Amino acid sequence: QVRLVESGGGLVQAGGSLRLSCVGSGITFRFSTQGWYRQAPGKQRELVATITRGGSSNYADSVKGRFTISRDNAKNTVYLQMNSLKPEDTAVYYCNTGQTIVYWGQGTQVTVSS
User: Fold this and answer.
1) Is the per-residue pLDDT at 98 higher than 90?
2) Among candidates 52, 27, 38, which has minimal Cα distance to 86?
């Protein structure tokens, strides 16, 4: 059974930092691409960052230069380091992975106060 578990969310002031983690079980991260997405209240889920099998990363324009996605293959864990957080980064953050079937975690809440 595939399971993704996100953690690391919380309440932080604008300008602060958080590091999100996504631990996978039942699936090997290094064989596929992982992504971090977020969904703010009343808005559609949007892509934040991805990391490929080879370790290449891509970012939404809104987070470039502030967020960094990485992966620890030994721990089967993907991270999202978020720096210089803004109130507009407030959302539930989800990780996903998979190829023919895409798996999602349950999400972790990030709240940035002004």
Assistant:
1) no
2) 38
